[in-house]
Amino acid sequence: MKYIFFTLFIFAAVSAEKKSYDGYKVYEVTPRNEAAVNRLQYIRDNGLGEFWDDYLAVNLALRINVPPENINNFLRVLKSSDIQSQELISDIQSAIDQQMKPVSSRSSVSYLSYSWSEYHNLDRIYTWLDELQENHPDVVKTVDKGTSVLGNSIKGVIINYHPERSEKVIGIIEGTLHAREWISTATVTWIIKEFLTSTDPAIRALAENLEWHIFPVVNPDGYNYTFTHNRMWRKNRSPASFTSCPDNDDNSNGVDLNRNFDFYWMTVGATSNPCSNLFAGPSPFSEPEARAIRDYTLRVNQEGRLIYYLAFHSWGQMFVIPYSHVTPEQSLLSGNFPNMFEISIRAADALKERYGTEYTAGLSANVLYPMSGTSFDWVKNVTNVPVSLLLELRDRGTYGFLLPPNQIIPTALETMDAMIEMDRMTRALG
Ligand code: ARG
Ligand code: ZN
After folding, report:
1. Ligand showing the shortest atom-to-Cα distance for residue 28
2. Quick one: CA dihedral 363, 366, 370, 375, positive or negative?
3. Is the pLDDT of residue 55 over 50?
4. Which helix (H) or strand (E) holds 170?
5. What is the CB neighbour count within 10 angstroms for residue 101?
6. Which is nearest to 174 in space by CA: 281, 285, 267, 306?
7. Which residue of 24, 55, 161, 169 is surrounded by the most CB atoms within 10 Å?
8. What's this model's pTM, rounded to 2 decimal places?
């Protein structure tokens, strides 16, 4: 009897329940002065809501996820300081449930065991990558970039149509460094599919003229966790600097992998607080996922053939150009900033043509928020790759991380348009 109780207890302790977001709402709030910023700081420090944007500044819109028990209090604090708010999502759990429903198969596209009518978990993605190698043995090779905290492999594919051309340039695509940004995963898998099956000459050229190294999920533990425990998880599942954090249901606080790289580490837009979504980790490259990206990128670039490093995130609709800790006035621009800016502007124009979706392009400090320790900045600095970009895919906050599955294919199509134009411009600029 005692023994049974003990096992039950252990079981309950390790299999924490999936977090429910019933009654949670997302509000958009824009502080118009320093006092309002302080007030929002207060709201955050007192845990009244989880900030979907972690950077607080005057005139910068914030989305805040507020649990039902705090809504009255939250609105009262805003009102007492005369801060306007707007309800963006009236019930997060129903938005989450909605997002899990596949679109009708009539309007869907699939290839082998995979489809773009819904979001898929890690197992499904990795199984598909193996199928690709089986079905395209001369072109596709699966590859492990490294191993995550929990022992998952960071699996990707190398797509190489002309192994005999040893001078070919290389593109690396990084998806899902942030766990909850599912549209980045879906878009990266779409790019793989297009490179292997499209008959569009522009896509064929892009696929075949380069050697591609594509990793749909570089944060596999975090991505798994968004399916099994908490849809809104962003970081990896590192037990680093364990502290008891309000919203954590087990012994892992996680590290923001896009703050863990050794380039201006922990200088801006990052924190040493393990409970924060912007926790930079105990030291630069403390996390195996970040080290895997570092080591793999350096190895692939040994002959200096890297031409693209593209990191896919969501949301915001932006092309973010290195470096992210600086402002233009500080003039520490990456060497070919003007080229990358021009390439991004043109790519944004091409993207807009299909459905009218508007993207902005610029330094993170201008289009998003200053940040430090990111992968694409680190890669730019250490390899001097001609084009290193972070793309924030759809949308601009209507659904945020919970982009409905009927937007997967439109997002993927317009993103591919942008990539084609990016490549055309990159070659034109030399
Ligand atoms: N993917 C973003 C990041 O790297 C989060 C974007 C959400 N916030 C926003 N303002 N677009 O932090
Ligand atoms: Zn992100």
Report:
1. 1
2. negative
3. yes
4. strand 169-175
5. 12
6. 306
7. 24
8. 0.94
What is the structure's pLDDT at 250? 61
Three-class SS of residue 65? strand
**Ligand 1 mean position to 369 CA, how many Å?**
9
Distances (CA, A) of 365 to 41, 324, 325, 421: 20, 6, 7, 25
The stretch 147-151 carries a mean pLDDT of: 97
Does residue 212 have a cis bond before it (omega within 30 degrees)?
A: no
Is the pLDDT at 406 greater than 70? The verdict is yes
- Give the pLDDT confidence score for residue 305 in this predicted structure: 97
Q: Please confirm, yes or no, whether 392 is among the known catalytic residues.
A: yes
- What pLDDT sits at residue 243? 73
Name the maximum alpha-carbon separation found in the chain: 75
CA of 181 to the centre of ligand 2 (A): 6
Q: Is the CB of 313 under 6 A from ligand 1?
A: yes
Phi, psi of 239 (to 5 degrees): -85, 10
Q: Which residue's CA is the closest to the ligand 1 atom numbered 9?
A: 316
Segment 219-255, tens digit of pLDDT:
999 999 999 999 999 999 998 776 777 666 566 789 9
Q: Whose CA is nearest to atom 12 of ligand 1?
A: 53
**For ligand 1, atom 7, which residue shows the shortest CA distance?**
315
Return d(Cα 269, Cα 239) in angstroms, integer: 22
395-417 burial, b if ≥16 CB within 10 A, otherwise e? bbbebbbbbebebbbebbbbbbb
Cβ atoms 29, 66 nearer than 8 A:
no
Per-residue pLDDT at 2 exceeds 50: no
**What is the ipTM, given to two decimal places?**
0.96
Structure tokens at 28: 């958009």
Say how many Å lie between the CA of residue 400 and the centre of ligand 1: 9
